[in-house]
Specification:
The protein has about 375 residues and is an alpha/beta fold. The chain has 2 domains: about 10-165, Response regulator (Rossmann fold); about 200-365, Orthogonal Bundle (Hypothetical protein af1432), CATH 1.10.3210. About 50% of the residues lie in helices and about 10% in strands. It has helices at about 50-60, 70-80, 95-105, 120-130, 145-200, 205-220, 225-235, 245-250, 260-265, 265-275, 285-290, 310-325, 335-345, 355-365; strands spanning about 40-45, 65-70, 85-90, 90, 95, 110-115, 135-140. It is elongated and about 95 Å long. The termini are far apart.
Amino acid sequence: MDSNVEITKAGAEASSLKTARLFDDPSALNGSASPARDLRILAVDDEKRILQAFSLMLGDAGYNLKTAANGDDALRMIKEGPFDMVFLDQFIGKDRGLDLMEKMKASDPRLYYVIVTANGSTDLAVDALKRGASDFITKPFFMADLVRTIEFVSRKRELDNQKKELMNTLETKVRERTQELENMHFDVLATLAQALEARDTGTSGHCKRVAHYAALIAGRLDLDSEQKRRLHIGALLHDVGKIGITDFILLKPGKLDSVEWTDLKSHPAKGVEILKSLKYIEPALPCILHHHENFDGTGYPAGLKESAIPLIARIVSVADAWDVMRSDRPYRKALSRDEAQQELRTFAGTQFDPEIVEVFLSVSQGL
């Protein structure tokens, strides 16, 4: 603490602090309501007489003030809080005020700071403002200096709160509008998938049913809301890549030759290519790309196995296979419920994740 610091009218002349001649604004001590009066203020200084001066100037004037004589006490009080602003001396024992400010910010990022210094240099002021202080005052200071600073911080705090409220309102509106646009895009894509199904009466409603079965599995696996959202999108759009596959292949009643089979197996990658520019669908793309992977690594397109296959893709794999087995196809009639259940059991551990098969079988009795 600088020994030449003078706090005007402290000590024996404390009573005269309440006279108008010490104030640039004589109304500073009147009884009128002010948002600044509600601020919870902490003054930190290692000199007792300075803290006494703060108490005489602000405490007696009705401000909500507490004091701390060292950095440790100040940090403890900040944690116990709450406070709105802090007067910090430039040097507090072994601590620098700006360094102590950084520690306080880590404890409560909402605080506003005023650096108190005997050195009124421009460099110090710039450094203090750069590091997050709202203002600084030089010693010796008068009551009017403190009042002006508190009023300034109060206005700054109010403006910052208004800015936050405005930004929150704008962000809410942007989110709402973004959601509207996403819903529109999704509806268009879902309509495309349904139009694809309409080409083949045997697959009409397939994607919606797959999404329904996948949701039943997700409910038993306790997936969180974001995983369920990705699963729902992936299930509804898992076959959208078949838009790029010819009707000759999709509706062929007989066995596909090797070239046709290769073309059909490209539909997951084609689906990703169609959807990859839509950011809100991006988290669901692994489901669309990998829903034909096999649990033992013999599937396509990447030959992934077991846990390397995304969970939502493993779920859609079972849901998709169930609906395919339970529907009439160009090359065969639908399987009965018992037959389809037996197929899942037979291929659990090779084509399908056995845990997901078990979960699905437990909810498939009425399907």
